[in-house]
Amino acid sequence: MAAAYAAVTPEPLDAARLLADCVSPDDGAALLFWGVVRNENEGRAVDQLEYHAYAGMAERQMRMIAEEAIARFGTGDIRVVHRVGVLAVGEASVAIVVAAPHRGEAYEASRYVIEELKRRVPVWKREGYVSGDREWVPGFAPAEAGVAEGGLL
């Protein structure tokens, strides 16, 4: 039976470990989505992203999304891990590993997981710009919900 795993962590992500922990002898494909901090957004030079999350709720939602993908696409295990804290350009912020008997299911499930994660999971980001300014990415900012400024949930 396929399993769903989800975690929120301040630690750097380890692609090799995530893949090794996910793949079984039943799988003919393993797909890694590796989301990284890029150096530009909407024409502004970015030098860091700061992620905040309501960890318990985020992990439950990510696990639920992974379980939905397993059921919907018939995959093997799915692992979803999201970073929190301040990340520099080039650092990985989210990893999704999907193991499956065939590549088609792995690709479909991976796309489903990242799109649903962005839509449903309580993870917020604030961009830090080369200019020194910082702004919450449009949407729901934790400060709007009464979260203490600068604190990780």
Describe this structure as you would to a colleague.
Mean pLDDT is 92; it is low at 145-153. The chain is built from 3 helices and 9 strands; from the N terminus they run E-H-E-E-E-H-E-E-E-H-E-E. The protein has helices at residues 15-22, 55-73, 103-120; strands at 4-9, 29-36, 40-41, 44-53, 78-83, 85-88, 92-100, 123-129, 134-136. A hairpin with a 4-residue loop joins strand 8 (123-129) and strand 9. The chain has one domain (4-132): Aldehyde Oxidoreductase, domain 3. Helix 2 packs antiparallel against helix 3.
Morphology: elongated
Assembly of the depicted chains: single chain
Q: Any guess at the CATH architecture? A: Alpha-Beta Complex
Number of strands: 9
- What is the average of the pLDDT values? 92
Biggest beta sheet attributes:
5 strands, antiparallel
- Radius of gyration, CA atoms, in whole angstroms: 16 Å
CATH class: Alpha Beta
Count of DSSP-assigned helices:
3
Percent in strands:
35-45%
Which topology does CATH recognise? Aldehyde Oxidoreductase, domain 3
Q: Between the first and last Cα atoms, what is the distance in angstroms? A: 32 Å
| Overall structural domain count | 1
Could you name the CATH homologous superfamily? Molybdopterin biosynthesis MoaE subunit
Low-confidence stretches: 145-153
Q: Determine the structural class based on helices, strands and strand pairing.
A: alpha+beta
